[in-house]
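Hi, here's the filled form for the chain we discussed.

Project: internal
Contact: R.S.
Residues: 308
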Amino acid sequence: MTNILRKSVLCAGVLVCVLSIPTGCDAQLEAPDTLEGILSIPSLEQETVPTETKPAVANPEEIPEETMEYQSIFFRPEIEPVTETVPETQVVSEYIPEVQNAVSDWEEAYYLFLKHAGYENQLAEESNKTDIKFLLLYLDGDDIPELFIQTTSTAYFYKYQGFQVIYTDSIPVSNYSYNFFYRPYKNCICTTQGSMMADGTYLDVREYEPSATEKSGLVLKSEYCYPTREYSYQVYSEMGMNLDFDKAPLLDIHMDRENNLGSSWFTVPDVLDVDTRLCRYAITEENLTAVFGVQEDPDSENFNQKEE
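And the returned structure, exactly as it came back:
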């Protein structure tokens, strides 16, 4: 009997302790009436596992025009355009306008220039002429691309004007990555120069403009120096370099961040690298025919008569 009384007293004491614990909500909360609620175990039915969703593929028609500004026919867009399938019952005309097969004057000019190695005078000092490729970039504001010839050390570019291929300038590529940068339709080219161990590297920006003469292509307007390290500012300023920081925002260059070049700049990688976004070719007869659409070798004598 004594043991029974002791157990009764003990149970009563535990019950009093449980009831005396403050709940924080006083009488507003109802006491749990299930074992699960008393033990504070969350219900498995309340747990939801988020399902992984794949990112939606953007529709090219919904891409803002500003993001597609620099995707010319010489660049492969990352998003392939959606092509419509023609129903079997629909009759498709086989007529193709002759204008689609026509080769423009600038295409003939670049074709003959590359085929007959008109660039040899500029590349005469190149020690290795095997790693040479050509590409077409829209450097100025018109609808005719400029011809670039890239090697492992230099990029040469030419402008078509007045039935002539005019040599414009050559730029030494970066000593570290062998690439260069350009702003499509903005007449700007940039390379990384300097030394990482000595005075520091800097962005060498060249801005071009149309020549005052009719058949001179583009001429260098200004050249700027933008050090990539703050301690180099004074060093290059004392050398007489043009550190025009007021001009930097207009050139889409930002000195307050790690990547100084803005999004309007496009990178042309090392001539030995393969970039799927860039169409770049070795100078071969097959490539010249494919790029410029020349089916038969143009008569160079007749073509030269166009200059008169």
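Let me know if anything looks off before we file it.
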